[in-house]
Every structure is written in C-alpha cells, then in structure tokens.
Amino acid sequence: MKLAGVFLSLMLLLIGGVLAAEEPSVEKVADEAVDEIQAENAAEKAVHDAAVDRYERFRHAIDLWHDANLKGNKKLIKQYSHDLFMLMEHDIQYSRLALAGTAVKVNRVAYGPKQDRESTYGGVYSRPKSEFERKQSEILAKRRLAESARKSEAFSNRFRLFNDYLELMKRATEPAKVELVDGGDVDPVE
Description:
Radius of gyration: 27 Å
Distance between the termini: 51 Å
Oligomer: single chain
C-alpha cells in the first residue's frame, strides 16, 4: 500500500513537472499579447485610413459632379454620376466586409472563453454587438441613399442624397464612441 502511495506521488510529481515545463513564461505571454495588440492596432489604422481615403475620393467626386452641373456639361455630368455610383457601390461592399469582420468579433465574445464574456462587465458593456448592429443599419441606410440617388433625376435632390451619403461615410472616419446600456453608471472595477 505504501509502495502504491509512493508510486502515485512520484507520478503526480512527474506529471506536474511536465505540465509546469510546458507552461509558457510570463514574458513570453506578455510579448505575445503586445504583438497581438500591435497587430490589431495596425489593422484598425489601415481600416481607418481606407475609410478616410474613400471619404475624400467621394467628396472630390461630388465637387466635380457639382461643377459639371453648374457648367451644364452633360457628358461630364454623366461621367461623374457614374463615378459617384461606382464609389458608392465600392463603399457598400467594403462596409459589408467590415460587417463580416465584426460578426466574427461578436461570435468570439459570445462563444469564446468564459473570461471573454465576463470582461463585458456583467453585460454592461458589449462593444462588438452594438458595433455590429450599428454597421448593419449603416449599410441599410447607404443602400437606400444609393438607390434613391440612382432613381432621382433632379439636381438638388441628387446633391442632397450624395451629401447625406457623404455624411454616413464621414462617421466611419470618426473615432468610435463607447456606448453604455442600462446600468452603465456602475463602475466595473468595484
């Protein structure tokens, strides 16, 4: 019996030693976390820069279209209208890709490790889900504006619709705001 107990103790020590040997060091875990955060920040910066670029191109195309209308140049009006509609379609496609990326984040939070779900402060703050819903409604609004602009023939109406669309694009270039739901005045640190 004592031999079995000694054998069991030795096995537990060996298994514990093997498990401890396979545990990564604190420095390695910290370095990996820093690398992951830097990669996420670089990706977010690239997304932001692309949104700013699309916004600037669309704004410039509106100016060209507006100028062509003031001069009465029908050929340029048609060309710039086409350019604006293509830029809108490109932006909507890009927005759909961003929505898919946000859906992945929502799934990661919803079905990820328990500590990921708990990091939302007991349900008080859940950015990916609200971000997903915001992007989804934004795409719907962009599609409606694009369809209305295509159907409209009146200069003033198209000009307003193009600028409304431009305003939606501008929102994507602004920093994200944290939204708190009911109970948001609760300090998550306490």
